[in-house]
Structure formats: C-alpha cells, structure tokens
Amino acid sequence: xxxxxxxxxxxxxxxxxxxxxxxxxxxxxxxxxxxxxxxxxxxxxxxxxxxxxxxxxxxxxxxxxxxxxxxxxxxxxxxxxxxxxxxxxxxxxxxxxxxxxxxxxxxxxxxxxxxxxxxxxxxxxxxxxxxxxxxxxxxxxxxxxxxxxxxxxxxxxxxxxxxxxxxxxxxxxxxxxxxxxxxxxxxxxxxxx
Amino acid sequence: xxxxxxxxxxxxxxxxxxxxxxxxxxxxxxxxxxxxxxxxxxxxxxxxxxxxxxxxxxxxxxxxxxxxxxxxxxxxxxxxxxxxxxxxxxxxxxxxxxxxxxxxxxxxxxxxxxxxxxxxxxxxxxxxxxxxxxxxxxxxxxxxxxxxxxxxxxxxxxxxxxxxxxxxxxxxxxxxxxxxxxxxxxxxxxxxxxxxxxxxxxxxxxxxxxxxxxxxxxxxxxxxxxxxxxxxxxxxxxxxxxxxxxxxxxxxxxxxxxxxxxxxxxxxxxxxxxxxxxxxxxxxxxxxxxxxxxxxxxxxxxxxxxxxxxxxxxxxxxxxxxxxxxxxxxxxxxxxxxxxxxxxxxxxxxxxxxxxxxxxxxxxxxxxxxxxxxxxxxxxxxxxxxxxxxxxxxxxxxxxxxxxxxxxxxxxxxxxx
Lengths: 193, 417
What we know:
The complex is a heterodimer of chains A (193) and B (417).
Chain A: E1 11-15, E2 22-30, E3 38-40, E4 47-49, E5 55-61, E6 70-80, E7 90-97, E8 106-109, E9 112-113, E10 116-118, E11 133-138, E12 147-148, E13 157-159, E14 173-180
Antiparallel strand pairs in A: 1-5, 2-4, 2-6, 3-5, 6-7, 8-9, 8-11, 11-14, 13-14
Chain B: E1 2-3, E2 12-14, E3 22-23, E4 36-38, E5 44-49, E6 55-63, E7 75-81, E8 85-90, H1 92-95, E9 105-110, E10 119-123, E11 128-129, E12 140-143, E13 150-156, E14 163-169, E15 172-178, E16 183-187, E17 193-200, E18 205-211, E19 214-217, E20 219-220, H2 224-229, E21 240-246, E22 259-267, E23 272-280, E24 287-293, E25 298-301, H3 304-307, E26 319-325, E27 329-338, E28 344-349, E29 360-361, E30 371-372, E31 389-395, E32 398-404, E33 414-415
Antiparallel strand pairs in B: 3-7, 4-9, 4-11, 5-8, 5-10, 6-7, 6-9, 12-17, 12-20, 13-16, 13-18, 14-15, 14-17, 18-19, 21-26, 22-25, 22-27, 23-24, 23-26, 27-28, 29-32, 30-33, 31-32
C-alpha cells in the first residue's frame, strides 16, 4: 500500500473477496521496531463483504512525532470468521516522516529491468540440488537501501540465506539466488505454477 | 520486496516442469479433424480450459523451413491444462521445446476430440483453426490501412501437402514454397495491400502481417459467397453494421500515449456507399458521414475523427463508430500510437464485430450470455503493457466488450461456453 501524501492524512484502501458473501475480520499490526502509528477508522471486526463489491477502509495516521524523521511499518490483513480462506490477503502500511523521496528498488532479470523470471524446466519433487535462478536487485538511489521481501501466495520460492543481511549500497546491483522448494507447494498444484 | 522507506518492487517467478519432448509428428490428422495453428511461435502462448476436467494438449513445433513430418526437426510435448484454469507458456520454443533463443516456427495444438470445445488457445499472433488459409483458386489478402515496414509470416495449416505461394505486395512478387506445417517469414516494404496466391500444392497457407506492435491475419480475398451465388446475388442481402471502438485517451493514472484510429473502407466488386455514424461517449449528438468508394478501391482515413468528422486532434474523445457496410464492402481499423516526433505507428488491429458477432451480449433472445476474457495482466514491463482498457460499445440492439492492451493485439471477448 503506498504512502499517504501527508503523514497525517487518511488513506483509503479497498478489499473484495470471492463470489459469495464473506464475513471477515480486518486486523492490523505494527511490524517490529515500529510504534503504533495507524488505525482503521471503521474498525475491522465482523465485516461482511458482498460478492464482487469493494469495501473501503480508511487508514488514519497518528502517534509518531511530526518533528522527528522516521519510517514506520505495519500490516493490515483479513481473515475469514466462519470459513478459513485459502490465502490471507494483506497489505503493508508505511508512514514516513521527514526526509526526501525514496528510491524504488528494481529487479534486473537476465540483464534487463523486469518483473518476471522463470525457472528452466525440472522434473520431480526432490529439487534440493536444483540450480538456483539468479536475479539482480538494483538501487538507483543515492543512499543505501535496506530491503525485506515477502513471498506469496505460495511458499515454494526461497531466496538464498543472507540476501538482505547488508544494505544495498547507493547505485549498486546485487545478484540474488532464488531456489524452489517443491515440497512446500500446495498439494496437487500443477506446473507451471 | 520493499524498503524501509516504503518503496516496493515485485517479481513474478514461475516454476516449470520439464516436459517430455519427443521428436517427430507421429500421426497425420484426418482431413476434417480440428486443431489449432499458431502461425508464428511467439513469446507467450495461453491455453484456457473452461471445462471441469483436465485436458492433455499436445503441442507440436515445426521450425521454419522444415517439413512438419521431419523426424529430426519437429518436436512434440504434452501440456496438462487443469480444469477451469489457464496455462500461460512464456517463450515456449525455448522453455518447452528447448530450442535456441531466436528459433522461429509454427506450433500446432492438438486437443482430444472429446475435449475440443473446452480449450481456447490465444497467443501474441492470431491463432487459426487447422486448414485455414489461401488455397489454389482461393487467394487471401491483407489490407493495411496504415502502411509501415512489414514482416509477413506464412504458415501451412493442413499438414496434408506443401503449397507454392506467390505473395504480391503493392505489385512486387515474392515466391515461397511452404512445406507441410511449415513456416516462413518474409520481409516486405511498406505495402498497403498484400495478396497471397497458392499456385501449386494442396496445402493452405495463412499469412500474418506484423507492423510495429500490430498483427493482421489474412482473410479470403474474393467475396466467396458472391462468387458462389453469382453476380448480383448479394444485392438482396441486407447491410450489416460494423462497430469500430474509438479510443481517445486513457483515464487511468500514469503516462500514456495518445491514440488515433485509422479506418479503411473497401469496395470489392462494385461501388459501395458506407454510412459512418460516430457516437461520442460524452455527448448524445451523433455525427454521420457517408463514404462512397469506387469499385475495387479503398478509401483510408488515417485519423478518422479528424479526417472524416472534422474533430480536433487536441481534444481526445472516446466513442463508438458504427458503420453500415454494404454487402460488397469491408471495413478495417487500426489503432495507432503517437511515436517519436509524434509520428503514429500501428499499435494493434482492432477486432470489428458486426451485429451478427458472437462477441455481443444482450438482454434479449439468444444473445443472453456472459462474455469473458482471460489472460489479463498488469505489468510494468513495457513490452507487455501496463494497463488494459475495457471498451463497452453499444452495437445496434447489442452490446459487446473488447478488452484491449496498447501493447498487445486486441481480441474480442469470447462468449462463455
């Protein structure tokens, strides 16, 4: 979820879910290291989503001092009340106080900017010795970049250990190895996936 | 992936099975058997299964210049398409068949007969049924309303026989012999009209012209219905209305090109008068202009709003251009983007359904059906496009939907099975 234009302005996001009415709870949490900095104006308990109808929630920012530079992170998520969902939709919330515009990381795939990478074909479920797929991450900004990543909705993709242990220097490009772990894929999930 | 400052980037990663690839085409299909032909194996191929059972789809790749029954060159693989799912194959020539990057050719997709209606195949070029194309005595043609440097792909689609082809592009003749299930690319200049004649051989050859980002598939050149019924037989047939979507601009955020639509009016065997009516999306006032075209001639409006209706190019406007087409007339349309220096180049050919098209839905009668379109993607990759435009055009007493990506060929929506 993108930043709000102003640290204190509300930001609206919406959800829609499935083809039948669904009762959900919208939860929120600050990530470790972040103090409470936002709330959902409408509350999030026992919300009924009508099929194919977006539901908008307003995020209000409050709490952190506005005279001290900082960046705060949280997450909002939705879980089914009566019926568990195959995936848990979530969105990150970020509040940045002070500082200039931040550079955006860029994936480099086979030498060119991209957002798609494919593993060469592989047979069998035991992929422990399968060669890694390499992609690069570029920091085109002029300050070091600290990175984190989430993988979903399935968890068969694994980055190499320590890929983000160090900040990515300004203007630098880092090659990251990606591995498959097919035993983590949902049962019956066909390839290509 | 995200940074502490809240910036983020995403990467879609695909895991692929190593498909068992074997050599050669084991069987020749019966004359009436159906399969799909992808004339030019492109970088994305999509198989949609609208049924409740998984379908094994056999894909057979014939590299350019090879015979479709050559044991060494032809490769074969089977892809399982899960029920109610879409399998997207990226760069199938390399990823599936293991050929070197840059290898070109055609792909035949065979579906078990009892599952044939469940699978739809789409690709970056038009996918045609087996047997489609020019044959001896039945030439095909392509009218290009916006001439530009053109690459022509010729593909034999029957697998029964070769075809010796004569390609006439603005008077220049190029010949080629296309083997069974073979494929060949020809570089042409910037023709406005391409004719494909088969001089010998029992094969059928489909032609696909590529201009910029746009592709145009060949169609029968003669009005075969008129030829069968005799001269003057079409005079009793009523006109049909063809709908041309007019895209003036993009309402979503972000950088977007400016568009203009070129429309060509073709009179085949006798003079024809078309009636073009533009319905602006922002006004209830329709604009109507007749277009009279001499026999055998084509009248092209490179910017139809400006050149035919006198609308200023500085005020982009969306709308619906309904064209009453006489029986001996045809209409073609191309969406153009403004390129470097403002020079437009073809972005996509526009699917132009008539009032008889299946890409229409309505509250009345047999037209009560949902329309669907799969394969919509959102991307920051400029080669794949960053947005889709959904156009809803009111056809006379009908409604249709045409999803369109500026970076991909536009396809009409399909009725759900």
